[in-house]
Amino acid sequence: MSSDETPDLSEDCTTLEAARLLGMSVRSVQLMVDRGELEAWKTPGGHRRIARTSLERLRASARSASPSTRPGSTAARSARPRVLLIDDSVHFQKLVSLLMQQRFPDVELHIADDGIAGLALYGQLQPQVLIVDILLPGIDGATLITSLRSHAQFAHSRLVVVTSLDEPQRAPYAFALDQLPVIHKPRLVTELPELLMKWLPARPLEQGDAAAS
Amino acid sequence: MATRHRELADPSPGVRAAIANNFDGDAQLYLAFAASCAAQFARDVSAGQSGCDAGDLAALRGLAHNLKSALTMLGHDELSAVAQKLESEAAAGDLPSAKASWRELRTGLSRLQPP
User: Fold this and answer.
1) Does B35 reside within a domain?
2) A32-36 long-range CB contacts below 8 Å, 24 or more apart?
3) What value of ipTM does the predicted structure carry?
């Protein structure tokens, strides 16, 4: 069955089928089941069976993700460098927006409020840089990262993780954070621009340029 | 980098330290962020009160988690500690303590003055 076909909601489906429908890895779907993010039950043999209604809710959430892109940018790809921020904190969405306007005005910033919307926007935008929070509604950031890394197209993107969790609190997510830069949110202004300057082709403004213009 | 405080007439020591440590000395960016937070805090208080009234520990935990970092960035370390306490209590399922911490956090947020 193609992912665009309407599934039979009266049946449950296997983990493999759910992974195909969601465009995710089997492991990511298993983790979502284990965390209760997908409604499921187990067969006597221990195999997960996932409710199609639960899958459809997730897919509907992904389809409605596009409006999360902020004014001033579009989901259509342009020649400008694209950065996708996936973070449910309005405070940090605003902070990253301010920082980008001030120091990287040539960059398109797109914002998703949760992991499902972020996954959908990632597919549409193919951003050069992804900024992902760990704790997200929907699919959490660690699962999102694991899923993205399983896609070949992800090889064209850079990823930085931002989090309010301190190092001991990050331990349960170590499997997803391996070899990724992680910025503690209070250090975001001091550490994120340096990474973006390395990764993005646009010339960043020096501090004060924006104020002087 | 030299810290720029031109836009702040008389920043408190906490705000001065936050600008230097968390905003790379950029007082202008601090002010813009503080203004955006002030508007959002009002919405946070409303959401938090709804969560508290409903006994929704997951909502209180998520809100406290986000507020914790925003308050730290702004230099409101004591209030950030209250948010952290609320997050821990909500995670532990301790509704009475979480409600008490929410009231403390709500009062603190409502008393914050723009720098």
Assistant:
1) yes
2) A32/A139, A32/A143, A35/A140
3) 0.87
